[in-house]
Amino acid sequence: MIETHPDRGLAVTGGLVLVRADGAFVARRACDIAVSNGRIQSLHDSGTWQIPESWERIDASGHLVTPGFVNLHSHGTDTPYTRGVLEDAGSPSLGESPLYEHLPAVRAAIRPADELAATELSFVERIRSGITTSVEMTYFTEVQSRGSLDVVEEIVKTARSRGWRMIIAPRYKSADWVTDGRSLDYRWYSDEGFTRFSECLDFLDSLNTGENDLVQPMLAPAQIDTCTERLLQTTTEEARRRGWKVQLHAGQSEKEFFSMLERNGKTPLEWLDHIGCLTPDMILGHGVHLSHHSRVQHDDGSDLGRIGAAGAAVAHCPVVNGRKGRLLESLPRYLDAGIRVGLGTDTYPQDMLNEMRIAAMFGKAASQTSRRPTAADVLSAATWAGADILGRPDLGRIEEGCRADLVLWKLSAAANVPTRDVVKSLVYSQPHASADTVLIDGRAVLRNGRMAGVDEDALAARIQELAEGVWARMGELGRLAPLEAEVV
Ligand SMILES: [Zn+2]
């Protein structure tokens, strides 16, 4: 299934290789990358070293070679079924977000088997856009605290067998959202979600992930407004004990902000800090509606200062927020506040090229300047900065000793001609799903445009069939009846 055999050595030869020097991206011409045991062993000017006879070679001439992208926030288990449901929707009373009505309606109709197929399709889509690491926040355990972790186990098995790198983060929480389409309320579980939390923790402990495992664990309490103080504090403590990271959706909507302000007399981030959970291990999913945001106007930036001072990070997902009519205000402002920012695709398209492009443009629009964020700023967020947030300085860069997660992009593609500034071309011009070859740990999961071990036509047909079942069940469940099984 996997075409290359990194254990016997691999040379990726003659590419235009994107490295970093003194903190900036530099394209190194005619560069060979020597890979051994899944790691980058050394970089050489082509023709200046002897490639061992037994090594496999990948000819990268005519290609830009970049580090694989780090997708800091994704939900592959349901994303394919939400296409066509979440757009152009959202009640004005609920911050114009489809989060509280449309998304739960789809999720309630999805079965475990649907999730596994959706995750496979999601990885195909991501790899084709150069993503080699995904934080996969499964949700099945979140819905009313029901659901089995069996599907998560299957997802982990699939990732390992296909050679896909994944940070697995099964979610849990203490409450469900309840809404009539106008107001938002919470239905709290009697056990605060601790039963499910313990199951997730046991599951992650049982993964036995070694240093070389493609799959690594992360704790993921679902949302800042649906978790109790005790659940978040226990999460923080258990993560610290194990050296794991935590990801929590926060700052998703103005509804969340005002609900929590009323509940605690503090902004959501002020509360998180107050209870001791805003730590360097904490990754805030979205982090948009903070105290300075124009939809909130609580103050002029205390939450930003708080996150920066705590050393916490933000998983910025500009596309999904843009679809809701909301901007992060603004990426340069977050960076200036000392906040570590990575990028995530969240829903769809699961395309980091698109995410970088929109992050650059929305960041400029929100700051009303053409100068920042630069292409290098957003490429940094999608590569080494995202990796550092995960505590993985061996990812997101092409350096000796780092994992050989590499992407080859054809330089002769029309959108890339002429070659001048490859970082700007990659961010502003590179077409969707255009990676030519993708290596994870030195193994080719995509080779010359062909996915290893996946029949994409068959998978697409299966997802279409499963999706029609999901949409039909949404109707049967009486959820969003106007959308029921609607194929247009
Ligand atoms: Zn999310």
Written description of the protein model:
The chain is an alpha/beta fold. It has two domains: 112 residues, Urease, subunit C, domain 1, CATH 2.30.40; 321 residues, Metal-dependent hydrolases (TIM Barrel). It contains 16 helices and 21 strands. Strands 1, 2, 3, 4, 5, 18, 19, 20 and 21 form a nine-stranded mixed beta sheet that branches. A four-stranded parallel beta sheet has the order 6-7-8-12. Strands 14-15-16-17 form a four-stranded parallel beta sheet. Helix 12 crosses helix 13. The chain is globular. It starts with 9 loop residues before the first strand and ends in a 12-residue tail after the last helix.
Counted beta strands: 21
Oligomer: single chain
Number of helices: 16
CATH superfamily of the largest domain: Metal-dependent hydrolases
Overall shape: it is globular
Q: Ions, cofactors, ligands: which are bound? A: zinc ion
Features:
binds zinc ion, Urease, subunit C, domain 1, alpha/beta, TIM Barrel, 4-stranded parallel β-sheet, 9-stranded mixed β-sheet, 21 strands, 2 domains, disordered C terminus, 488 residues
